[in-house]
Structure formats: C-alpha cells, structure tokens
Amino acid sequence: MGKQLLKSRKFWAAIVGVLFSILSIVAPDFPISEEAASNSISVIMAYILGVALEDGLSKKESA
After folding, report:
1. Could you tell me the pTM of the whole model?
2. Which residues, 6 or more positions from 30, have their beta carbon under 8 angstroms from its beta carbon?
3. What are phi and psi of 7, to 5 degrees?
4. At what angle do helices 34-62 and 9-26 cross, to 10 degrees?
C-alpha cells in the first residue's frame, strides 16, 4: 500500500495543497494574495477530484 500511495497523483496534489496552506500561515509575508492562494487550492482540489473520477471510471470499465 505504501508504494501505491507514493505513486498516487492525488496524494502528491494533496501534499502540495497542504504545504501551500502551511506556507500561507507560517509566512504571512509571502508575496501572494489571499485570493491567489485560495484559487490555487481550489485548482488543486479540482485536480484531485478529477483524478479520482478518472480512476473510478477506468476501474468501472475494466470490471
């Protein structure tokens, strides 16, 4: 299971989102607006949902 997790696109997208959120809290002087940070996290969430949908549909077709 561990190797599958490390190869997961959803996992790495979630890690990037979490790191981005932590960066905005830890370094409030980081040169990015709150709106841009929110938009970036929204894009990451949409990517994760899209990959999950793609994975789910590919498993359904192969069954």
Report:
1. 0.70
2. 23, 24
3. -95, -5
4. 170
Q: How many residues does the chain have?
A: 63
Gap between the Cα atoms of 45 and 10, Å rounded: 9
User: For residue range 34-56, what is the model confidence (pLDDT) as tens digits?
Assistant: 788 788 888 988 998 998 898 88
| Six-digit token string for 56 | 């789910």
Residue 2: both structure tokens together? 């561990």
Instruction: Using alpha carbons, select from 6, 8, 17 the residue that is nearest to residue 51.
Output: 8
For residue 41 the two structure tokens come to: 């996290």
Continuous segment of H or E residues that includes residue 55: helix 34-62
So where are the chain's domains?
A: 2-62
